[in-house]
């Protein structure tokens, strides 16, 4: 049991969910190299490979598929053991931090999550991506959720909210083709995460441009690097590629949009609830 750390299991499950090193590393707020090293260390301990490469994606091996359920069970067991030895008075089932969010803002949220994981606190994060804001508000008021991240504030006056991330959108292209005007490009669209929220930030001017492809983020960015089209997305999603000059952001766009993320919570949440500490830590970093 002691072979596996909370962090290594969490990293494995994150990669198993996304099947892209770049996407998983972004979610964990670590480098791809660091994530790859952790996965290799875990595979070495187990004695068999968990992933195999398939094009630009990763695929779970048969052993990897079997280890997914085991990893989840191990995480629960690790947390139960930590809860027992730390003398925590609340049962394990109440140590989940239940979050609803179509898109979790990387900053500051993942920094706080990483802090919780490194501290080996007896909590786990339960994440729901499919809830509408209306359903999330109802569950927050009933105590069925602890907090939520949405691109708009809540409707209920009984809930609290605060902006925790303001992420500027950029239009990125291959550096060698940056001389072309923004309206000379075809677009590569991101799916499925941003599709439902496109109406909130999609400039009307972009709706007249042709669409050359729709793909997940990893594939879309690869196509963009090849010069197949331009992408319009939050700057944080391409920060490393901009820094490495794999892509450049077009200047002098006739429009400007921001992805605004709100943290939403019920002010009646108990101060003894680990989620209350999590919320305070996120707000402290804003």
Automatic annotation (TrEMBL):
SUPFAM superfamilies associated with the record: Periplasmic binding protein-like II, Winged helix' DNA-binding domain
Gene Ontology molecular functions: DNA-binding transcription factor activity; transcription cis-regulatory region binding
Domain HTH lysR-type per the UniProt entry, residue ranges: 4-61
Keywords associated with the record: DNA-binding, Transcription, Transcription regulation
PANTHER family attached to this UniProt entry: HTH-TYPE TRANSCRIPTIONAL REGULATOR (PTHR30126), HTH-TYPE TRANSCRIPTIONAL REGULATOR GLTR (PTHR30126:SF40)
The protein's name: HTH lysR-type domain-containing protein
Pfam families recorded: HTH_1 (PF00126), LysR_substrate (PF03466)
Family, similarity comment: Belongs to the LysR transcriptional regulatory family.
InterPro entries reported in the protein's UniProt record: LysR_HTH_N, LysR_subst-bd, WH-like_DNA-bd_sf, WH_DNA-bd_sf
